Automatic annotation (TrEMBL):
Name by which UniProt lists this protein: Cupin type-2 domain-containing protein
Organism for this UniProt entry: Roridomyces roridus
Coiled coil residues, start to end: none
SUPFAM superfamilies tied to this protein: RmlC-like cupins (SSF51182)
Pfam families (alphabetical): Cupin_2
Domain Cupin type-2 residue range list: 91-156
Region (Disordered): 1-22
InterPro entries the UniProt entry points to: Cupin_2, OryJ/VirC-like, RmlC-like_jellyroll, RmlC_Cupin_sf
Amino acid sequence: MSSTSESPFPPTRRIVTGHTPQGKSLVLDDSLTAPRFLSPESKVSLADLHYTAEAPAVIDTELTTGKWIDEAKTQTEKIFSGKGSNFRSIDFAPGTVSPLHRTVTLDYGIVFRGTITLELEEGERITLREGDTVVQRGTMHTWRNETDEWTKLYFVMLDAKPIEVQGKTLGEEFHEAK
């Protein structure tokens, strides 16, 4: 397996559009996103491509405040915004295993490059390849890159109502994967 901790994928180019004071279309931002590692020893990097703190999303700050507010750059600590949406890319190094986790979100995922295994908490496993999609509905899961190549996924995460099972609310959780 590759020992490099640097993703071989180039930064994602992100174009954000908006409006002039007259309501005409314009490009607010055209830049490369800088990925960040979850921790110094992590081999998982992510880049927040867009972030909204609420839903419905506020998409006219350049008109109401005179300046576009890029929430993806002002928020870096949270996995999910809590009430809005996240658009994110995640790069997994060869041999990487994510923590076993659940977010209270509806996640749409697309495997852009490589192969990755989705493992649910009871051990059910499914391998996803380039072009495959996953709709993650608040389940406990881990991601395993069991190949010797890097894998890149894109996710859109949306706020969801918490799941209730037998009177217990299933909230956000993070545990070390086995």
